[in-house]
């Protein structure tokens, strides 16, 4: 008897499901959670985020079943941890998300952040550097994380002890507990979005990883090199702190406002 594809896919996910016992699925996601209500709620929001984010960053929804993802949910009030692992080699054909978080965040910004990774890995398989991947995902984080990172950037601006961008651009990963790294990555993504549109940011990030950052900066932003980027970003980031301080209490990173093709 032929086993349905969804059964095989679920079987692949089960060994890492831990205490998860209930399942909800469609052509894009399998969600394993401790209760059916949670599984169905996460599935609905993950699918909605997937469509919204793909339209936002690529101008169209991803094809159904491309970049399939299993989501393992452990509901834990007072905790908020998540991780996404792209599988399937360079093609990023499958993904696994682990969520240990509250019921609200399992369908909120924590889930959205991880689905950003899925969308980016699926639309740009294997080509984005860590700072772009995490920086873009961090634009959708909750207000608490946004405020933590604002304070880090405000300290850089006040002390003048700005981190060097060159090693951040070249880094293969940003550790989950490196809030300073996430702060810089998200701020750099915002700065570049203030100069050009989302498509340019993705093209630049891929080109920089492939061809080198100086050439990519000249081609996509008219910036001479990483040293000029460093100066421009520091000036811009320092100017953002008073405005961000007023807004951060009531805004998260969702609904990123950009100035497409402004060139300045």
Note the beta-strand portion. Answer: 5-15%
Poorly predicted regions are: 1-18, 244-264
Average pLDDT taken over every residue: 86
Share of residues in helices: 40-55%
Question: Could you tell me the radius of gyration in angstroms?
Answer: 19 Å
Which strand order do you get reading across the main beta sheet?
Answer: 1-2-3-5-4
Secondary-structure element order, N to C: HEEHEEEHHHHHHHHH
Which structural category fits the helices and strands?
alpha/beta
What is the rounded distance between the termini? 62 Å
Sheet bearing the most strands, described?
Answer: 5 strands, mixed
Strand count: 5
> In DSSP terms, counting alpha (H) and pi (I) runs of 4 or more, how many helices?
11
What this model shows, in words?
It contains eleven helices and five strands; from the N terminus they run αββαβββααααααααα. It is α/β, with parallel strands linked by helices and 264 residues long. It has a five-stranded mixed sheet with strand order 1-2-3-5-4, with helices on both faces. Helix 2 (36-58) crosses helix 4 (109-123), helix 4 runs antiparallel to helix 5 (130-138) and helix 9 (198-211) runs antiparallel to helix 10 (213-221). 38% of the residues are buried.
